[in-house]
Structures are given as C-alpha cells and as structure tokens.
Amino acid sequence: MAAGWSAAEMPFGFCHGDYRVGNMRIDGPRITLFDFDDCGCGLQWFDLATIGWWLEIDGRCDAAFLWRAFVSAYMPALHGSLAFCHAISLLILLNEINSIRFLLDYCALDDDRWRDVCKRLDDMSYRAVSGQLAINRWPA
Q: Any idea where the Aminoglycoside phosphotransferase domain is (predicted)?
C-alpha cells in the first residue's frame, strides 16, 4: 500500500468512531467521551485520524501540540513511529473525503459552498501528500 504501510500493520480494536471535541466533555485534565453511536472494532489509526482531521479543519495554531498530547495519551508507542506518521496524513485525508460523502448524501449545498468544499479538499490533499499538515509539525 502507499506510503510504505498496509492496513494489516495497523492496530485493530475498539474504536469510538466519531472522535471530535463535540463528543467530549473536558473538565480540567479529565476528558470523557460520549456519543458511541459509531463505535465498534476497526483500524485504530483511522480512529485517531478523525481527531487529527478535526484539528486540521479547525485551523488551531496549537494543533501540533494538541495532536502530540492526544497521541501520547492514546497510544504512547506511536510517538515517533515513522509508519504512523506516514499513514496518518493519508487517513486524515480519507476523513476529508468521507465528510464530502456525508455532504453528498445528506446536504443540499449551493454552488459557492461546493466550490469551498472542493477547495478545502484540494488544499488538504496537497498538505497531506507533501507532509505539510499542522499535525505533522509534532517532533519525533
């Protein structure tokens, strides 16, 4: 598979399925996840990529810091993993593509909004394949 990794190399197990700040209650250092409608077993790196995608589209200046903290807490062994760093950019891009599928299935957007969606996909595609995503700025 592309980028030197395969799905068989990724950890498979319990996944939340919809990691995002809107599905978290943050109380100081304690974070509680809820909304497990989409949970199940799957590729855990894809589950992680969902929060990475939300950080990317939110445009936060501290995205790399938050990403590093999240990955270190969720799967400490991944910190500095070259395979993970390569795979996660493409999995974040897959989240962007999935969001467009959702828009196609459930939303009626005008032409201007579709242009914005396509521009965001183009921009994220470029940043993902060129290693320029905000989350890629986390040190190994």
A: 7-66
